[in-house]
Amino acid sequence: MNISSRMKVAIGIAYIAAVSSTAVQAQEDTIKVGILHSLSGTMAISETTLKDTVLMMIERQNAAGGLLGRQLEPVVVDPASDWPLFAEKARELIELQNVAVTFGCWTSVSRKSVLPVFEEHNSLLFYPVQYEGEESSKSVFYTGAAPNQQAIPAVDYLMNEIGVERWVLAGTDYVYPRTTNRILEAYLKSKGVTDDDIMINYTPFGHSDWQSIISDINNFGSAGRKTAVVSTINGDANVPFYIELGNQGISAEDIPVMAFSVGEEELSGFDTSSLVGHLAAWNYFMSIPSEENDKFIDEWLDFIGDDDRVSNDPMEAHYIGFNMWVEAVTKAGTTDPEAVQAAIIGVTVPNLTGGMATMMPNHHITKPVFIGEIQSDGQFDVVWETSGTVVGDAWSDFLPSSMNITADWMPPLSCGNYNVTTGQCSGQNYE
Amino acid sequence: MRLPASFLMEHGVKRLASIELRRTYSICQVFALFLLGAMTIPADEVVAQSLTDALESLIAADSYPEKQAVAEVISSIDDPRALSALEALLEGRLYTTRGDQSLVIAESVGRGYQIRDFLTDEDLGRVGRRDVARISVNNSLRGVLRQLLATSGLEHDDPRQRRSAVIEIGQSEDLSMIEVLQARRDRESNAAVLRAIDVAEATLKLDSDDTEERLASIVAVSGIVNGYIRTKLTRLSVNENIDPITRQAALDALENIEDKVANYEIVKTVFFGLSLGSILVLAAIGLSVTFGIMGVINMAHGELIMLGAYTTYVVQQVFPNLIDYSLFIALPLAFAVSGLMGVFIERTIIRLLYGRPLETLLATFGVSLILQQSVRSIFTPLNRAVSTPSWMSGSLEIVSGLEITLNRLFILGFSIFVFVILLFVLRRTRFGLQMRAVTQNRQMAKAMGIRTNRVDTLTFGLGAGIAGVAGVALSQLTNVGPNLGQAYIVDSFLVVVFGGVGNIWGTLVSGLTLGVANKLIEPAVGAIMAKIFVLVFIIIFIQRRPRGLFPQKGRAAEA
Fold first, then answer.
1. What is the domain count for chain A?
2. Are A345 and A359 in a shared domain?
3. CA distance to partner chain B, nearest, from residue A26 (Å)
4. Do B466 and B285 form a contact (C-beta atoms < 8 A)?
5. Whole-number Å distance between alpha carbons of A51 and A67
6. What CATH number is associated with residue A281?
7. What is the pLDDT of residues B46-57, one digit of tens each?
C-alpha cells in the first residue's frame, strides 16, 4: 500500500472526528447516516470495506447536492466484532446521534443482536450480506441474498449442469451455515437425494487444521459418483481450507467446491492458482461487464487510492441499498422512518450488473444469481446465470416450520411473519 | 469474419458425439489437409490458414460445448502456435479486444491490461479494463484442454510434467492413446513416469471391449489407490451389461483397495496428528521460555508470532523474484523483529512488573491489542497473501495412494529443528547456563556476578524471537492477518501448562500428544467435539497433576 492512501485514510478519520465533534451545531442542517461496521476485531477484515463503501456513497451524494437540500453526514462507530457491543452502538447511533438510517452488520448474530434496538425505535437498518432468511423485520431492509437467491440456485446448477449426486455440506458452526444447510438438506431430499449421499460437517470459527476433513471429503467423493462440496465456511477458515485442498491434490474437476462466503476480497488474501475452477454463487462479481459496474469500480479505486483493491457482492448490496434509501427519502420528502418504509416498497434502482433491483413488500430485493469459477488472478468468470432476477424469499418454502409463513409490510397485512393457513400474524420470531 | 456454420458442424460438433471417434477423426482431418495441401498449395500455408480460421471461430463461439469443439479442431492443427493458443486458453490469458475482436494475450497491470497480439506477438500497449474480454473457460472445457495438451506434454523435459500428462491420458477414456503411451514407454527413462505409464495403460484398458484384456487390467490396478480408478471400478461393478466374472473381479479389486485405504487412513491420521502437534509445539515453544522458564504471563505472545508472519510477507514484497528463498531470508529477520520487540516489551513494561503476574497479564494483553491494531493500520485489516515456495507445495507420494503434504512435512521437521536448537542453547551455551542459574536462584546467580537484568531481557528476547520464527512457518499454513496471534495464544498456554511449566521436553511431548489425540478423536466425533474432549481431558489432568506431565523436581520446583 502506498503512503498517499494511508494519508487519505488518516485525513478521512480526522475529518470524521472533526465532523462528529461539531455535530451539535450541525444537527439542523445535515441528515445523519449511521455506519455500524466493525473496524477492529475478527470481522474488521470484511466490514471495513463496507464502511468505506458507504462513506464513498455519501461523498458522492453530497457532491451531487445532498438529499432534500441538506448534506449527508456520516456517523461511524466501531462495534469491534463484539455482538453485544453492536446493540449498544446501535442504541448510541439512534438515541444520541439521531441518525436517519443505519447501514451495518455482517454476521447474522450481530444482526440478531441489534434487531430489538432498531425495532424499539423503529429506526431503519440496511443489511448488506447474504444470510439464512427466516426473518423479516419492519425496520430492516435485507439487500443481501436470501437462501433462494444464492444457495438454492447454486445447488440447482451443481445438480443439473454438473450432474452432482453426492453432497458435502461443510460449514462454520453458527447460525447462517446451520440454517442454510438445514434448508439445503430439506431441498436435496425433496429432489430424491438419500441420507447416505449427504455428508454434513461443521467446524469452529477460524478452523485452521483441515487435514482430516479434506481427507474424509476425498474418501466420500471416491464412491464412483460425482461429488461436490457446498461450503458455508466463513471468513478466515477458508484460506487454510483451500490450501489443504490444493496440497492434497483435489482439483475443481474432481470435487468442485461451491462457496457462499468466498468472494473477490477473501481471495485477495492468497494465491489462487491451485483454486482455479472452484465455484462461488453471488449476485455480483467484479468481473461482470456493465457500464454501472465499470463506473463503480473506478470510483471505488479512486476513493480508496489503491488500484489493487477489489469490489465484492456486499458492496453492491450497500450500493443498491443506499440508492434505494435516497430514492425513497426523495419520494417521501422526509427521512421519517414510517414514511420511508412506506415509500421504499416498489422503489427500483439499477444494480451493478446491468439490471434493476426492486424493493419487495417483504423487505428483500430482486437479484440476479450468478455462478462464477475462480480464475488464477483471483477474479471470477461467470459460467451460469439466472435468466432474470429472483425475488428474495424471507421464509424458506423448504422448511416445514416456515413454508406457510409469508412476509408483507404493505397494508392491510403489514406483518413480517404471517401464517397463511391460520391467518395469524405472530410478530417477529427470533429463532 | 465468422466461420460458416458448416465448418463448425463438420469439424467440431460432430466430434462431441463420440469420444472414441474423436481422436481418429481429428488425425484424419490433418491427414486430409496435408493431402489437399500437397496437391494444390504449400502445406504450411494451409495449416496457417486453418489456424487463423479456427481461432476466429474460437472468438465467435459463445457456448462451452462450441468452444470445446473448436479447441479440438485447433489441437489437430500442426502448428506450434496452436498448442500455445490452447495453453493460453487453459491458463486464462487469452482475451479478445472489444473493437475488432482480435485475439490477444493480456496481463493485468494496474487498472487495465498490457496486451500482445496472439498471432504476430506484436506489443499493442496498455488498454482499459473493459477494452478486452477474457475467453472464459469452465471446468469441463478445462478438462478437455488438459486432455488435448497431454499428448504434447509427454515430450516435456520435466519428468513431473510428463508424469501428469501420462496421468491425464490415463483418464481420457480414449483407447487409441494406448499406442501413444507404449511409444513413449520405449523412450522413457524416468522410473516414476514409467510407473505412471503402466497405471495409465491399465486404467485405459478398463474400458476395453475385450473381456480378457479388461480382466487383466482389473487385476493390474487392484492394488492401486487412486480416486479415478476407484470410481471406474465402482462403475464396472454395478454395470449390468458386463459379464458377472468381470463384475466380481471389479468388486474384489475394490475391496482390496478399500482395505488398503483403511490402513493408509491410520498412517495418515497419525501424521495429521503429528503435524497439528508440531504446529502447537512451534507456537508454544517460545512461550515455554518466557512463561515456562521466566514465569512471565505474556499475552502478546501470539502477536509476536504474527509479527514473524508479517515479516515473511514484507520479505516477499521486497524480493518478489526470490520466493523460493524467501523463507530462509525471513527466518533470521523474523527472529530479529520479534526478538527486538520482545526486548522492548521487557525493558519498558514487564521489567516493572516482575512478581506481579496479574498486572503483567493485563499489561501484555494491552500490548497485544496495540500490536494488532498497529498492524491493521499499517497493512490494512485484510489478510495478506504469502506465497508458498515451489519446493513446499504439493505432496510426497510414499506409496500410491498414501501421500503426505510437503508443507506440513517441512513444518514438522522445522519444529523439531527449532526444538533441538533451543535445547542446545539452554544446555550447552554459557547464556543457557546463566539463564538456568537466574531462574533457579536469582540471588545466588547475582552473587556469582551474573547480570540478572540483562539475562532476563535476553531470555525474553529469545522466547519472542522463537515466536517470530514460528510465525514464518505458520504463514505457510494459515491466514496472515491481524488476528493470526489470537488463534494460537490459548493453545500455546495449554501446551505449556500440560507439558509442565519450565520443561522444554514437556512442551514437545505435550504438543505432539495433544495433536495426535485431537486427530484420533476427530474422525469419530467431529472437529468441534474433538476440541472439547481434549479440553475436558486437560482440565481433569491438571486437577490431578497440577504441575503437568513433567513437573520440575528438586530445588527448582520450590522457586
1. 2
2. yes
3. 29
4. yes
5. 20
6. 3.40.50.2300
7. 666 788 888 888
